[in-house]
Amino acid sequence: MALTIVGGGLAGSEAAWQAAQRGIDVVLFEMRPQKTTGAHRTDRLGELICSNSLGSNLPDRASGLLKHELRRLGSLLISCADASSLPAGGALAVDRDKFSECIEEKITSHPRIRLIREEMVRLPDPPAIIATGPLTSPDFSKAIRTYTGEGHLYFYDAIAPIIEADSINMDIAYRANRYNHGTTGEGDYLNCPFDETRYYAFRQALLEAKKIPLKSFETDIYSGVDAGDAHYFRGCQPIEVIAEQGEKSLAFGPMRPVGLTDPKTGRWPFAVVQLRQDNLMGNLYNLVGFQTNLLFSEQQRIFRMIPGLENAKFERYGQMHRNSFIASPNLIDESLAFKKDPGLFIAGQIAGIEGYAGNIASGLLAGINAARFIHGQMPMVLPVTTMTGAIIHYITHSSMKDFQPMKAIFGLLPKLEGPERHTKRERYKLYAERAMNDLDEYLNEPLRLTNDVT
């Protein structure tokens, strides 16, 4: 019995690999290049649209813990990320092209996976996994809406600009990691320092800048929601929106200077813009936290106000797109299967998960559980004390009143037993230790998941 997977992004690619590794024949549908989206630039599997960072790689950070769990669970995509990693302090950043090439080579060379480059316009018969992502095509979105009987939820997501490295003025910019953490050599990040006067001039320019009008993307599939009523994902707000939230909202947010000592002054600047290497060659850098919906001409004008970027050459401008996701708490269980059809699974951001690593985790679980469904075995439902288990628990048990996609955060985990710890670092370390211990205990239970994880 073959498994059909719709979508060759992070979740779909991971799911295909996990199922195939468990002896299941997989047919993976990816609509690109036959049909593209407003945000993708290539037809590669697992293309990273927004940042090239998968977040912290440190075990005592929520995102880092999630990656450590995924390595323990045998994630293909995390192994590809590790193999294509770039210097990024304590974060796991990748060369986008190398990352996608690794995924595509592994998927297309697997003897049990057949990749079909065409759009699906109806839901496949079970067993199947929906992993079409936040930019699901209009026709397939209609099919999901018809099946669920509920309208899509949505939020706006934004992409940060990428600039050419040789256009950065290194007489002004300096290399440093925050508090020198994870530093390789001089530092993995480029930092553009602001004094107070230039900071406020920059903020004012953002407030007055012209924006690209938010358009209705296939309004018929979004229950007639007004596209002008912008709901931004709280972890990916446009820089100009953050600027509106207060005089120092940028300085306390994406332009926070704490721990970034300027070697020219020996002090922290008033504010700072960080740039992170975007490819293996090191000739491209992205503006960290600078997702935006400004007109391209305004981006060029205003971002050249950043000290050190006066002559910046833009390889890609920032832009915004609308992401859709289903009402997961009403529709799916902790195996990621639809409650009314245990052979139909869903994974990725369309299921209400935010963040690259979270999407990979959901694909891993969906692939494992689809294989186990076909084999007539019980599904894998990880302990809620693990970060993976906690994210899945969130999207399946939250109140619909304020449900929106969730990324890895320690606040999802049950409180620690025993006396209250006084520092975050101590608590986070204990959360991580408990998570990995509970994951190992779960996987090592007799007859738990024979041949699933080695």
N→C terminal distance? 24 Å
Largest sheet features = 6 strands, mixed
Our estimate of the beta-strand percent is: 15-25%
How many helices does DSSP assign?
Answer: 12
How many strand segments?
Answer: 17
CATH class group of the largest domain:
Alpha Beta
CATH topology annotation of the largest domain: FAD/NAD(P)-binding domain
Number of domains: 2
Q: What general outline do the C-alpha atoms trace? A: globular
CATH architecture level-2 label of the largest domain: 3-Layer(bba) Sandwich
H and E order? EHEEHHEEHEEHEEEEHHEEHEEHEEHHH
Q: What would the average pLDDT be, to the nearest integer?
A: 88
Biggest sheet strand order reads 6-2-1-7-17-16
Description:
With 454 residues, this protein is α+β, with helices and mostly antiparallel strands. The protein has 2 domains: 3-152 and 326-443, FAD/NAD(P)-binding domain (3-Layer(bba) Sandwich); 158-322, Beta Barrel (Elongation Factor Tu (Ef-tu), domain 3), CATH 2.40.30.260. The chain is 30% helix and 16% strand. The protein has 12 helices and 17 strands. It has helices at residues 10-21, 62-72, 76-83, 96-108, 138-148, 196-208, 239-243, 296-303, 328-331, 356-374, 387-397, 424-443; strands at residues 3-6, 26-29, 53-56, 85-86, 91-94, 113-116, 128-130, 153-159, 162-164, 174-175, 189-194, 271-277, 284-287, 314-316, 319-325, 337-338, 341-346. It has a 6-stranded mixed beta sheet, covered by helices on one side. A 6-stranded antiparallel beta sheet has the order 10-11-12-13-9-14. A 3-stranded antiparallel beta sheet has the order 3-5-4. β12 (271-277) and β13 form a beta hairpin. The protein is globular, with a radius of gyration of 22 Å. The two termini are 24 Å apart. The relative contact order is 0.17.
